[in-house]
Design a protein that fits this description.
This protein is of the alpha+beta class. The chain is built from ten helices and ten strands. The chain folds into two domains: 171 residues, Regulatory protein AraC (Jelly Rolls); 102 residues, Arc Repressor Mutant, subunit A.
């Protein structure tokens, strides 16, 4: 169908679904795939409620290939369009359904285990319940590969199912913590783009969120809300990450003193820089440079 988004791992996989059931291993596993599928829905009876699916805890990644669905989470409504992934957990106040007269094609993974629940809640707190990902993004490719393995009957053990679940979970967390999910609606607003450009050009200066808001031409309140919605993180966190990335690059590629690196990253107080670096990476700048691990 014209306009279909199809991740490479699923191009030769026909619509189907399959559940994984294994004897409980003696060694506890905390991340598992429960089921997977690639489906085409055309019947408006496709209508699922997150508080009417039993008491068992599980998570869902459902990526739209073509068509459109509807999602409501805690009263907020979303249009689920191609290239977006629903990131839901259960039991929870959510509902997703096919509008009358519509057609919705997607693939999905259901996962369970305490680690999956923890990962999902943390990721959704950053990305929201509906996130936009290109079909060749690490998240979608990992999920699509897992779906393909399940549908082809290639997952023969709970250990293999757990490994696939962890890969999906870690790719999702990677995207969440990198702010890699772009806004679902449209592109990056010009106000946010101006602020990001200003940040990168003035990183060595002691700029803050107020300066970014001024560059965007918005009040701090409205800018912070817009920025979080678009980039998946608060502007202050974005600024910190940019500074820490520059610090890592300077520590790895130059012989500049820690004090000089601090100044180049916008910190007037090297001691404060060291505290921020340790909080981010778990080691001091000096130990980071000396360790040889990086």
């Amino acid at each position: 169908m014209k306009g279909k988004i199809m991740p490479a791992p699923l191009r030769a996989v026909r619509p189907a679904n399959h559940a994984l059931v294994f004897a409980k291993p003696t060694f506890g596993l905390h991340a598992m795939i429960a089921s997977a599928g690639r489906e085409i829905r055309t019947d408006p009876s496709y209508d699922l409620h997150g508080l009417k699916r039993g008491r068992s805890e599980f998570t869902l990644l459902q990526y739209t290939l073509v068509g459109e669905g509807r999602l409501t989470v805690e009263g907020r409504k979303y249009a689920v369009t191609p290239g977006t992934a629903m990131l839901l957990w259960f039991p929870h106040d959510n509902r997703y359904h096919l509008p009358r007269g519509g057609r919705w094609e997607f693939f999905y993974l259901c996962l369970h285990g305490s680690e999956m629940m923890r990962i999902w809640r943390a990721a959704v707190a950053r990305l929201g319940p509906l996130a936009s990902f290109p079909p060749d993004s690490p998240v979608v490719e990992a999920a699509a590969r897992a779906c393909r393995h399940v549908l082809r009957g290639e997952v023969q053990s709970p250990w293999g199912a757990s490994a696939l679940a962890y890969e999906v979970g870690m790719r999702l967390m990677e995207a969440a913590h990198a702010g890699q999910s772009p806004p679902v609606r449209g592109g990056r607003p010009q106000a946010v783009a101006r602020a990001i450009q200003f940040c990168r050009e003035r990183l060595a200066e002691p700029i803050g969120v107020d300066d970014l808001a001024a560059a965007a031409g918005l009040s701090r309140y409205h800018f912070s809300r817009l920025f979080r919605r678009c980039e998946g993180m608060a502007p202050g966190e974005f600024l910190l990450r940019q500074r820490m990335r520059r610090a890592v690059e300077r520590l790895q590629t130059t012989r500049q003193s820690v004090k000089t690196v601090a100044f180049e990253c916008g910190y007037a107080d090297p001691n404060y820089f060291c505290k921020a670096f340790r909080k981010t990476y778990g080691v001091s700048p000096g130990a980071f440079r000396r360790s040889g691990m990086y």
